[in-house]
Amino acid sequence: MTKQIPRRIILGPGPSSAHPRVLKAMSNPVMGYLDPDFFEILDEVSESLSVLYNTKGTSFAIAGTGSAGMEAGFSCLAENDEEVLICNNGYFCRRMTLMAERLKLNFSTLDFQWGTAVDLEILEDKLKRSDIKLVAVIHAETSTGVINPIEEIGQLCKKYGAKLMVDCVTSLAGTEIKFDEWNIDYAYSGTQKCLAAPPGLSPVAISEEGLNYIKNRKSPPSSWYLDLSGISNYWGKEHIAHQTTPVNLVYALREALNITFEEGVENKFRRHELMSDALKSGLKSLCLELPIDESIALNQLTVAKIPNGINDDNFRTELLRNYLIEIGRGLGEFSGKVWRIGLMGESCVASNVFGILNAFENLLIKNNHEVEKGSSLSAASSVINSESPKPY
Ligand SMILES: Cc1ncc(COP(=O)(O)O)c(C=O)c1O
């Protein structure tokens, strides 16, 4: 017998639920990736991504998940004899170092304590004393729930002549990104988080300078498949074939972008903020500790400490089996210490906030924690009711 695909409420660090319209768009007929009618769809997606990234530069989508966008950046934006700096304050920064190692890049890391943001003074000091040509940083670090100050980092990169590569996997469509204004040279994301599409594409933006750099490198990028210049030639006017495009995923991305603009980008950001405030308020009323300072805490992902006496695996298993709710476990230094609750894209709705708080309340009571019944729901409710709901 074939395994049935179970129903889930996915409130982890990603993927998040896909919008039904996005899933429907995917079921359209497959077209040839060199069909002139498909090129019109590519153009639409490219323009919409540029609006979302706030750039006059080039935007397109790479076949592959967010990590493909990460690897493309490292493969293309530094020659092996150039100094690369990775700002390291979480699990996905560590992934960056693993890639840089395999690509034999000349890199160093600037390490910050998990749960804190990149320290600008330390970064400036490092940039002042070295000849760094590329700085890589995560905008929204999903392992710690911290947002990094990209605008200020961009100013420093400009001052010291380094290109800036930013991981926007969790931020795109949930938090504002001002690619041009913040002096970003390359940003990549994933479709499966705030965009509310399934995983499989990495929407990216690249500056003119970044593209020129790749075209004029001494040696070609180490990866043919992830050569950003080759992929941009396919998405550009000439439509030069690179690899077969996953066309149905492009339909999905186009629909996800349409839905984002129908809601209004600002409204979508505000939805993420409001639901996050409601969730955080509810969790606090359950006496759960939220270790990340409010000033740097993400809206898309909330980190809560696992209280003493709770078995992490059992708790999450019961949440999944009895409530169909998935949340994330801690990664790296936070492993076994925290839960990670995502409210992204289609998963970021009031019913999910109430659903998870109710489940948490019941499970904490079952585990002999003193919790006032209903308190978290009423805390979340008063946050959500403080604003007249926008249609979504
Ligand atoms: C901040 C961040 N960067 C990179 C990735 C890797 O993306 P993917 O799993 O889509 O390859 C993730 C995945 O969760 C992420 O949260």
Terminal CA distance reads 39 Å
Largest sheet: 7 strands, mixed
Strand content: 15-25%
Helix percent band? 40-55%
- Tell me the count of domains: 2
Instruction: Please provide the count of β strands.
Output: 14
Classified by CATH, the class of the largest domain is Alpha Beta
List the ligand species: pyridoxal-5'-phosphate
Going across the biggest sheet, name each strand in turn: 2-10-9-8-5-3-4
Say which CATH homologous superfamily of the largest domain is assigned: Type I PLP-dependent aspartate aminotransferase-like (Major domain)
Shape descriptor reads: globular
Order of helices and strands: EHHEHEHEHEEEHEEEHHHHEHEEEHH
Instruction: Label the CATH architecture of the largest domain.
Output: 3-Layer(aba) Sandwich
**Average residue-wise pLDDT:** 97
Radius of gyration: 21 Å
Predict the CATH topology of the largest domain. Answer: Aspartate Aminotransferase, domain 2
Structural class: alpha/beta
Helical segment tally?
Answer: 13
Low-confidence stretches: none
